[in-house]
Amino acid sequence: MVPKLKLAALAAISTLALAGCAAPPESEPGKTADAKAPSEFKACMVSDQGGFDDKSFNESGMEGLKRAEQELGVKIGFTESKTPEDFKPNVDSLVAQKCSLIIGVGFMLNEGVRDAAKAHPEINFALVDARFMENDKVVEMKNAKPLVFNTAEAAYLAGYVSAATSKSGTVSAYGGMQIPSVNIFMDGFADGIKKYNEDNGKSVKLIGWDKDAQNGSFVGNFEDQSKGKQLTEQQVSQGSDLVMPVAGPVGQGTLAAVKGKDTKVVGVDSDWALKYPDQSKQILTSVVKEIGQAVFDAVKEAKEGKFTSEAYVGDLKNKGVDIAPFHDLDSAVPADVKEKLEALKKDIVDGKIKVESKNNP
Fold first, then answer.
1. Residue 262 sits in which domain range?
2. Closest by Cα among 202, 141, 210 to 172
3. Cβ proximity of 297 and 268 under 8 Å
4. Distance of alpha carbon 132 from alpha carbon 144, whole angstroms
5. How far apart are the first and last CA of the chain?
6. pTM of the entire structure?
7. 196-239: per-residue pLDDT in tens?
8. How far apart are CA 129 and CA 147, in angstroms?
9. Cβ within 8 Å of residue 69, ≥6 positions away
10. What CATH number did the domain enclosing 161 receive?
11. 3 state SS of 33
12. DSSP-H helix ranges across 106-261
């Protein structure tokens, strides 16, 4: 056995040798403090009150975090919010856990994540679905990155195909809360319907959202599935044969309302035909946000010391948003409509069509 004194001496010599060889990393403009070593790096996440099993944007965020754990070898941590009162304490708890990067999922996490970023410049932060706001103004911090999505572009395509396949000539939408990340879906949806009407001399009607007035039907939260069911039933009674619920888990109330009926649904955030396979024959398509990829990329950048405060904006061009395949309803969409959708998508990507929204990120 080697004497303990000799082991200590060897360890000290090794440490000094390593210290002499290592050069401090150079800082680059616009980048945050040095990244922690891979073995120390910990990426953390706070859900909004929908929880990580919402089959929507919280779940998508968690998928990105777990992918980073598997592929990048980072440690992860997370806290799940049940009420808005949980947001700030949950963020603070992750600060206490010495997380290297803390990601808040959803517009509602703005205040908690923003304040923590200000108080802890040594930690990197990201916010899914919103820019950082204070007193109704966008604020920028060197250690805080918005992960936002121009969902109006994908919703435009969903609106077009919804109008094209509606038998009643009326489709509908409603939101969870009246916030920009919800309204933007319905803005694009409305414009897609309008485009279909202009191209085909039709007058398909949208109920539940008035783009010009920026008002419509809202549940008031992202939890009350019974209210989502009630709103859906009201819209169906007004003639709607397709509903787009932009309300996270509340959308499950819509699925319950239309089950067994000849009413279609457009999902949001993720591919609902895959999330709800038992009702895939009623899900025309979904307006998908690649939240998981955005989260993964943010973790990778932070781990590699390349994290910046520049906003990530997902759109059709960078494949950050899109519409999902038609799956079981593929035969219900005429070939000429599919061709038109591809042409519209190309025109949006090429900048020939600009999908305007007051809620653009």
1. 151-289+326-350
2. 210
3. no
4. 8
5. 65
6. 0.86
7. 999 999 999 999 999 999 999 999 999 999 999 999 999 999 99
8. 6
9. 43, 75, 76
10. 3.40.50.2300
11. coil
12. 110-119, 151-165, 180-200, 225-237, 251-258
